Amino acid sequence: MPEPRQLPTNPLPVESLRHICDENHFNFRTTAELEPLEQPPGQKRAIGAIQFGLRIPHEGYNLYALGPAGIGKLSLVRHFTLQQAAQEAVASDWVYVHNFLEPHKPKALSLPAGRGGQFKADMERLVEEMRASIPAAFESEDYRTRRQIIDEEFKQKQQASFDAIQNEASLQGIAILRTPMGMGLAPVQDKEIITPETFEKLPEAEQKRIQTAMELLHGRLQAMLQQAPQWESERREKIRELNREVARYAIGHLLNGVRQHYRDLPGLQEHLLLVEQDLIENAGQFLAAQNEPKNPLEAALGKMFSDSRAFDRYRVNLLVDQSGRQGAPVIEEDYPSLQNLVGRIEYRAQFGNLATDFTLIRPGALHRANGGYLVLEMRRILQQSYAWEELKRILRSREIQIRSVGDVLGLSSTVTLQPQPIPLQVKVILMGDRMLYYLLCAYDPDFLELFKVAADFEDAFDRTAEGELALARLMASLVQREGLRHLEVGAVARVIEHGSRLASDAQKLSAALEALLDLLREADYWAAQTGHSTITAQDIGQAIDQQVYRASRLKAHLQEEVRRGTLLVDTTGAEIGQINGLSVLSLGGYSFGHPTRITARVRLGKGEVVDIEREVELGGPLHSKGVLILAGFLGERYSRERPLSLSASLVFEQSYAGVEGDSASMAELCAVLSALAQVPIHQGIAITGSVNQHGQAQPIGGVNEKIEGFFEVCRDAGLNGQQGVIIPRANIKHLMLRQEVLEAVDAGQFRVWAVGTVDEAQTILTGLEAGERGADGRFPEGSLNARVEAQLAAFTEQVRAFAAPPTGGGT
Amino acid sequence: MSRIRRVILAQDVASRDTQTIATAVELAARLGVRVLGVFLEDPSLLRWASLPVARQVSPWGSGVDRERLAAQLRALSIQAQAELEVTAQRLGVPWSAQVLRGALQELVEETADDLWIIGTASRVMGLEVQLFSMLRPALPRVARLILLLPRNTAFQRPLVVLHGHTASAEAVLEAALGLMEMPAQPLSVLMIGNRTRLAASVQAWQAQRNVVVRPIHLSQAGIEELAGVAALVGCDVLVVGADWPPLEGEGFEARRVRTPGELSDRASQDMVASPSLERLLAAIRLPVLVVQ
To answer: Right CATH number for B6-149 from 3.40.50.620, 3.40.1190.20, 3.90.226.10, 3.40.190.10?
Structure first.
């Protein structure tokens, strides 16, 4: 087994490991000198989409702002929406009033902003005034007299008719008596009812005359009685007409006063006309309230009804009040349940029953936002039953119809209100992540029809001089808005570097506004603790360190187990078929890297590389893909013309959870090649990167965390100048390593190599030249690849030997 | 005026309504006396039912049957008694009821200090017409104080009407005082005709009873003028003597000449009520207390 030779001396220079922000490039001392930046930098595309979506008037051009949480979507959307709304006309007030023709269908009326409240107050006052004026009119002497005249006319008509019959009866010697069941006719003689005996003694002619007269009178009486209901009907109609006239007189001037205020609103005029007609027809209710029953219970119940409910139908339910508002409404609904979106109809308990009327209609966010803008969180809508479906239905129909979950499901069987739908003119802005957006696009056929504008927020923006200055100005505006200390220029530089680290890219800056704001708040706290009047670079550093410290309990625990030898990770020496891979753990918003020992064993086989992680279902598909690529590489490079008679097994040692991603595929290939070539790998070097079938190194994510994770293990074990990490060359631009690593590299205690191929990595790991195939088609003697190829050829020969028929013997 | 001993509610088939029952009980409660309900089952009605030509106008048919009529009268009296009981119990007024079937002579001696109440409005099959009540002509023979009560009226503030022929002004004034809900309030007294004599009588009574009187003098007054005064002073019950001219024909003359006799026999002689009294009741629409 060859010993590893001296390591190649081409590690990355320290300047490549972190894109330092030079504060000397800035011409300010603190952010107080900077002009605040209201819009976050790097969101030009999203801003353009928002402005377009807000201004385009056509149907379906609602917005979906997509991007990760904390990117500042809401702030930006709010800023531009308020700006746009301020230039637009104030939306209308909306009221619900009683529908006198169809009481279960309350009518919706629109009024100019601020006049809804006035209308409501006017109608309240009208009812109160009518409660005094109508009884006064009906108690007036004039009314009583006129009513008495009608009654007297009626009585006189009856009496005259009756008197005529009675006079006729008197002339005929017949009296009209009151009997228990009606009226009786009796012949009289000498002012006395004739007795049966006397009647019998009367001449037959006289008896006949009396009988005839009585039959005649009987007929006339019956005719009069049949006429009586008609007289009574006429009397009632006259009284009704009188009541109408008096009520019209009593309410006329009051209603005219209200009408004057709303001459310009035909809808209200029409409603007031119906109010007048109803008042005239039902003026009696204002009188009934005056006469309190003697029974206390009856009186109490009557009062409860009359005081609270009797006049409700003349009142106004002010659903949306835009008074005092400047511009169109902008509503953010934090809890977009179905009822909070479309409104609801409340009920009141009334003697054990639930009752409702138009005064119990409550507005939803759509009502309040009508004529303006409604901002909603998409995930929250989807968490609410039927909210999304109803929202789409309303946007399609362009009118707000209040429906409960029961209505949607068709469970309501009782008679309830059907408020008149309100025409809707609103721009809905949804906020959500990208995954939701793409899922909705894919699975909801209505979505793209209703939300035509996508405002796609960038995660990061270019770290140019302008980008750095824009971020500095953004810091200025944030500290100003939040009332924090201003940042010194050094602190600004530190934040910019941290921005690149958050973006995982030295040439980018993170657009995560919330994370930036958190950092500034925490730095302000530490500045206060140390008595700084401005936030210094030290405060920023402390804030970052504290964030890491608070979140790194698990990382510290893993490192401790490595120190204690529980987790087996070598940082010195050399081993065949064993390599330090690097993985990233993301837990609770914090990511850190950690080395994992990967081992490979080879033997005679059928050209398969066994991924033990996959076999036990701990490996994800991407990891399996990476492993399968290895077989392709091995076959293509070393066994193009002969069978690959290899069986290799790969395992992540001491890994008990799932493994996903292909960032360890280069490490796995190196381990297999080491095992084939029987060349030891230097254990002080860890490697990350994926590999393709040509053996080219491909970039991976989390490169900074991985390097730092291995560095910390080495640091704890003792840095010896032989340790370092191999990364794909394409990852150099992502390097934003922390200061401690930089210092170690600068001191020659730690190194970072960037490679373009697995051969380069093998050379660093083993100290052996990988070797390139020469003109003769052979790898240089003693090179790593020659060793590998020889081993694979030996495997093939062994297979052939096994497969050959036995020599000699036979029958 | 001697103290009213009881209120007697007089009812018969033609003079019977819930409002009169309520008014009688309320008045008894105010006066602190018991109420007696008297229901007259008129024997002449039963005789009429035996006539072969007897016909009636009724929703239940025109035929008349004596037995059925008797049963109906009994049912009416029971119903009237039940209504009186309910009303009296609600106000806590002691009550009793009696059904009279013609022989009423014994009641005459006992009713000297009783206030009789009789409803004057009648309603039959939806008609508000004046139908003859057997009690109307009978009451003057047995009662000293008679309250003629139209429908839907109350009484708390009396207006005393005195005239030149009033025999006993003091009795009329006493009866009015008994009706006053608040005796400390002035008692309105309308004096028609000879002012000097009437004024002297009233002043003497006023001094004796220590009552404030609001005197009103008119040289003469017809029914319309009387109604006007009643409305002007805001009174709700008229108190008159039995010798008041509009009552002529109502039967009070008989009492004055003290002609005893069978009540029902006498009653059947006048089949139509006094026209002038009916005109007065229609005009003023107030109860009238007649004092004999």
So the answer is: 3.40.50.620
Instruction: Look up residue A336 and give its two tokens.
Output: 């977009």
Which residues, including other chains, have CB under 8 Å from residue A472's CB and lie 6 or more apart?
Answer: A26, A28, A31, A34, A492, A496
CA distance A344 to A358: 11
Cross-chain CB nearest to A182 (options B44, B53, B58): B58
Q: How many domains does chain A have?
A: 2
Six-digit token pair at A156? 């006189």
Contact A178 B131 (CB under 8 A): yes
pLDDT per residue as tens digits for the range A464-490: 999 999 999 999 999 999 999 999 999
- The verdict on a CB contact (< 8 Å) between B48 and A186 is yes
**Pairwise CA distance, residues B169 & B164, whole Å:** 10
- Under 8 Å CB pairs connecting chains A and B tally to 122
Which of residues A238, A263, A288 is at a domain's end?
A288
Q: Phi and psi for A211 in degrees, rounded to 5?
A: -60, -45
Shortest Cα–Cα distance, B129 to chain A (Å): 6
Query: Hey, is the C-beta of A147 within 8 angstroms of any chain B C-beta?
Result: no
d(C-alpha A328, C-alpha A326), whole Å: 7
Nearest to A654 by CA among A572, A593, A727, A596: A596
| pLDDT tens digits along A203-253 | 989 989 998 998 899 889 888 888 888 888 898 899 889 988 998 988 888
The structural architecture, per CATH, of the domain B158-291 is 3-Layer(aba) Sandwich (3.40)
Q: What is the pLDDT of residues A688-700, one digit of tens each?
A: 999 998 999 999 9
The verdict on residue A606 lying in a domain is yes
Q: What residues of chain A lie within 8 A of the CB of B14, using their CB?
A: 177-178
Nearest-Cα residue of chain A relative to residue B275: A163
The per-residue pLDDT for range A94-113, each reduced to its tens digit, is 999 999 988 889 999 999 99
Lookup result for tokens 């992502």: A734
- Whole-angstrom Cα distance, residue A731 to residue A504? 10
Among all residues of A, which ones are annotated catalytic?
Answer: 663, 706
Structure token pair of residue A322? 């835009």
- Across the interface, of B72, B73, B129, the residue whose CB is closest to A159 is B129
Question: Is B6-149's fold the same as B158-291's?
Answer: yes
Can you read off the two tokens belonging to residue A278?
A: 């109803």
Question: Best residue in A144, A193, A204 to probe B by mutation, most B CBs within 10 Å?
Answer: A193
Cβ of residue A159 closer than 8 Å to a chain B Cβ: yes
Nearest residue, CB atoms, A177 vs list B50, B125, B132? B132
